[in-house]
Structure formats: C-alpha cells, structure tokens
Amino acid sequence: MAALGLTCYTANLHRYLDAEWDADRLIASSIRLSVRADGDRLAFSHHAPPLDRLPDGSLLRYRGTHSVPPALPYLAAELKRHGRTLVVTDSARLPWSVTYGGPPAPHWLLIDGHRADSWHAVDEFTALLPDGRRQHGHRGWLSTAELSTAMAVPPSWTPEQHRRNTLAFGSPVPVPAAAALWLHRSPGTSGPARSTDAEGWLTGDDTVLPFLANRLSGDGALLSRHLEDLWAAAGHRCFACRHRLAAEPDDDTRQELEATLARWERLPQTLRIATESADRGRPRLSLIRASLTGLLHMPDDEQAPEGAR
C-alpha cells in the first residue's frame, strides 16, 4: 500500500521499514491518537507501540553533530550497514517542497545511495497539506552541497515542531541540540518499550476527541497552532482504515470502515475552514466541536487499534 495519508516522518519511515518488513502492517497497527495538555499548548502522540523499536529488536535514535560535514561519514556508515538512512532536513530548503523558501519545518528524508559527491534521496511524502497545497514525492540525486543545505538545522524549531520531532515515533525520544541530525540504528535493549500511557496522556477516541473538541472550540489560536497535528492524526487514521479495508471480506464491516474513512477524510478541510474563520476573528466554534465529536460515531473496534485502548 502506498504511503498515502502519512506525514513526512511516517511516509519516509515507511520506506525505511519496507526494505525489510511489512511496513503497511507495522505502521497501520501502531496508529492511535493520544494527547496531553502541556501548559498553554498540546502534545500529540500518534503511535503505540512506538515505531522506534524495529522488528529485529534494533532501535532508531537521533544522532547529531555541531555542523553538517562531520555528519556525512556517519551517513555513509549507515548506508554501508543498512543500505539506507533517515536524515532530518528543513522542508524550506528542499527544492521540490511546496514550502521551499518559507518558514523552517522539520522533514525526514531517506537517503539510500552515495557515490562520489552525490547522495540519492527518496521522499515518499505526498499529501494535500493543511493549507490546501498539494505536495508530491521526489526521487533523485543531491550533491553534497545540496544535501548539506537541506540538513542545516535552524537555530531553533518552534515548540510545536520540537514536540513533533520528540514524539515522531509515538513515545518521546531524546533529540540532541545539534546543527545536523540523522537517525542511527543501534542494537536494542531487553527492556520494555516506552509508552505514553502512564505519563499523563489521554488515550482512546472516546476520551481524546471530546477533550480536543472542548479545548479547541474555545481557542482559535490553539486550533491554528495545532492544525498540523490534527491533520496528521486524520491522515494516519485514514491510512489505518485503508489498510483494514484492503483485507476485510465482510460487506457490513467494509461499509462501516468506509464511513469511518470518509469522516476522517473530511476533518482536515473542515478544520482548515474553521481555522481561517478564527484567524479572521469569526471562530466557528460549533463546526469545530461537531467535526471532532462526530468522529466518535464509528464501530467500537475502530476507536483505537488493539493494545492502545
């Protein structure tokens, strides 16, 4: 299944995983929405079990250097060991990105080849963005200078962007304060995988969606700040629904899944309309509340994947 609906993190992680395992199953079975109040902001987690622990027991962890050139030998070493690696780039510095030249935003990119002064990049991220623009994927060679430009991390991400980096796998992982970042694959430990469930997080749609409806329907600025997080949640849930539909033989269950899919597909556009209205000083509170609580009218087993309730 194509990585349709996945964010730039999970779309390119999907490509990384698919080289060895069933990436569709791994990602679809992990998808659930969890949220926590964090001061005057929110934190969102989209995966349980977290995706940093790979099926062979190895772990993906951020590594960093004080500038890009020292990072390049590490990327080459990852390619030699595993045939691919994920790097953190700034989407505003990727020539094929529709956000090129705009505000900085973290973007994972898969590198799966290296020759002389060039690196082969694969970007599986294809989506209708929260602002309504269409982003297409990309494959091609980048010079070392072009890759270095894209990997040059800005002095600081926004608080929301930093949380997304930290929670990209579902459970929080350390993100070094560095000028260049990539994901290093290392042997795992025998300890249990970390979970957000015991750290003050709300889990399960019957709890999370009413909470979000109450918090966001009364705060247009908060809605605008977290529009991208809600867009990611919708895309992920659509991916999980499509995965189930592909293997579901029962007609009644298929109809329920199709109805669920349609509701989550409508959410980003509805929230974008509400956000634009709030930005103009005319918040449509009832629309926000209805769009989020309306997602609860779905089969019980679709409210959260097994193991995440």
From TrEMBL:
Q: Can you say what this protein is called? A: Uncharacterized protein
Q: Which organism is it from?
A: Actinomadura syzygii
Could you name the domain of life of the organism this protein comes from?
A: Bacteria
